[in-house]
Amino acid sequence: MEHQQYRLIFKHVDQPDYSNDIECYIKNGGYEDLKKAVGMQPEAICQEVLDSGVRGRGGAGFPAGMKWKFLDRKSGKPIYLICNADESEPGTFKDRQIIHQDPHQLIEGMMCAAYAIQAKLAFIYIRGEFYEGYQILERAIEEARNKNFLGDDILGSGYSCDIIVHRGAGAYICGEETGLIESLEGKRANPRIKPPYFPAALGAYQCPTIVNNVETLCDVKHIIHMGGEAFSKIGTPGNTGTRIWCVSGHVQKPGYYEFPCAGVTLGQLIFDVCGGLKPGRKLKAVIPGGSSAKVLRADERFKGKLKDGTDFDWGVEDIPMDFDSLMACGSMSGSGGVIVMDDTTDMVEALANINYFYAHESCGQCTPCREGVPWMRKVTARMCAGQAREEDADLLMNIADQIAGRTICAFGEAASWPVQSFIEKFKDEFIQKAREQAALRNDGKPTKIETTLI
What we know:
Blueprint: H1 22-27, H2 32-37, H3 42-52, H4 64-69, E1 80-85, H5 95-101, H6 103-117, E2 121-126, H7 131-146, E3 163-167, H8 177-184, E4 209-213, H9 214-226, H10 228-232, E5 235-236, E6 239-240, E7 242-249, E8 255-260, H11 266-273, E9 283-287, E10 296-297, E11 301-305, E12 311-315, H12 323-328, E13 337-342, H13 347-361, H14 367-387, H15 392-403, H16 411-440
């Protein structure tokens, strides 16, 4: 069965007759929602976003309208809006498609949001490697400025705001909003302590700041177009609107797919939408929300109650793809990156690959993260080099437990959750690898030189 996508944000993505210039965008109804927005009271737009129930699409899933509500509007300081276009989470590749193929949708969504919070200036913080995307955005911003969709006295409304595109230096930690702000200010991207540095009160240049993801800001345009109540009817209560899922790994049709929240189950996404696995392969595991999300075994069952009190009894393939359902099953929807692994996957090597990434990306500000994450990388690297030991699984779990919850930002959890879940779900494979490698060694023990790998 082919499940029907609901293309709201991706309506024009991959369409052969659609280009990313402003004339094509306007011909297809572009900037009409900005015209509507500047004719409304800013407070009314904020209420529509709150009523929509839209949750942040960057990872944490915090309600966007609630974040806007926390904004310190009484400080007398200028307010800033930042679009997080860093998209560094492994397994995630949706925001770049919006930037490349429909940049004016992002610009219009940003200007609607900027007007709603009365921002004096807006920034797009884009991942440094996205150079082509940076060039596309610069051209699109110039096109929009020439037509008075941003800049001074936008559409004769008396409201003025411009957008600056800032290229990051390629660090994953810049996806964390306070680390992003530090980088934007020209400093090393060390995340700030919260409290007191909640961006809504003390953000960019110590001024009230809202940081939203690319997909989230695009949603703002559609909320204004249809109204918050109508938007909230897409998806399910608490999980409103559409969600873009990036599916990679061992599926026959990897790619990006947009569905209403909870409009498709994990099994339907893998087997119906993405064509299933290669012939003769079986599903082994899935990471449902980018590499930092906890892995799910294909043979697991989950029982419990959702937030609304609904009882559930699901296998992995039965899990509805939304924020609350995935969280109830011990993982998260995160950034929407679904990584599928079949029965040919060596889970030790898969974890070693993830550990290598996080060890490379740690900013080093917090001791547990600075010391612990590279330590986990060294252990899994040693295991993959033929020097695994049976106690390594417990060692890895112990290190991860000493990192999670003990760092300034969520990077500690991002690096620890894969280790914790891989060991919890596949500990037998880690022990089996150690036994097999010990049998291949002469005395069953690593040599003096080889032990330096830990």
